[in-house]
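Re: the request from the purification team.
They wanted to know what the chain is likely to look like in 3D before they choose a buffer screen. I agreed to run a prediction and write the result into the notebook, where they can find it.
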Amino acid sequence: MPPFTATQNQLLTEHLRSFLPGIEPEALELLRAQLEWVEVPGGSTLMAQGEPGESMYLTVSGRLRAYVRSDDGSIGPQRRVADMGRGQVIGEISLFTDAPRAATVVAVRDSVLVRLTKDVFKTLLASSAQVSIALTRQII
C-alpha cells in the first residue's frame, strides 16, 4: 500500500478530534498508532451483511453506501439505507457485540478509511482509561 499524503494524515487527525472531542494528545497518538489504513476502490465491498464484525472503520475520504437485504431473507434487490462520507464511523457496534454485520457496505467511489480491529480495541480499553472513555462514549 502506498504511503498516505500529509493531507490524508491531517484529515485523519481532524476526524479523530471531531469523533473524540476533548481527547488528550497522548491518548490520540496512542489510538492513531493502532489504526490501519485501508483503500477501497469504487464499486468494491467493504463488508457484507451477515459477516462477523471484527472491526470498525473511520472514513478519511470517499463515499460509501449501506444496503440491507429484506427481513424475510428472500432473494431480491437490496434496499439502500445510508450514505457515508468523510469523518463517519462504520461498523462500530461490532466492537461491543458478536452480532454479524447488519448491512453490506460498498464504496461508491474510491475511498480511504482507517480500521480499528476488535482485538486492538480491547487492548486500548485495557491500556488507556482516556481512550477507553472517549471511544465508549462515542460508540454508545
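For the purification team: The first strand starts at residue 36 and ends at 40.
Please add any questions underneath this entry.
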